[in-house]
Design brief:
This protein has helices at 2-9, 15-18, 35-45; strands spanning 22-26, 51-55, 61-62, 65-66. By secondary structure, it is an alpha+beta fold. It is globular.
């Protein structure tokens, strides 16, 4: 079953999920222990190479990245 899942994810039509060009982390924050901080930090510290956009109306920067007030302010389409 696991092999079938890997096979399905490698199909070009599903690349948007397995190899996105960019992602937004809505609710990203620098506050330790929060889901938003954990998700953003994991993306930054992993081998994930897609553009990452933190979204939070209360912060100008999060973990060194420019933060956007709304998903509509992100300069490109995100997954």
């Amino acid at each position: 079953m696991a092999e079938r899942s890997r096979e399905a994810l490698s199909r070009p039509g599903l690349d948007v999920f397995s190899l996105p060009k960019s992602v937004a982390v809505v609710g990203a924050t620098e506050r330790p222990g929060t889901v938003g901080q954990t998700v953003l930090r994991n993306l930054v510290e992993s081998r994930f190479r897609s553009k990452t956009y933190p979204v939070n109306p209360e912060h100008a920067k999060i973990l060194g990245f420019e933060a956007y007030k709304t998903i509509g302010n992100v300069p490109e389409n995100v997954l």
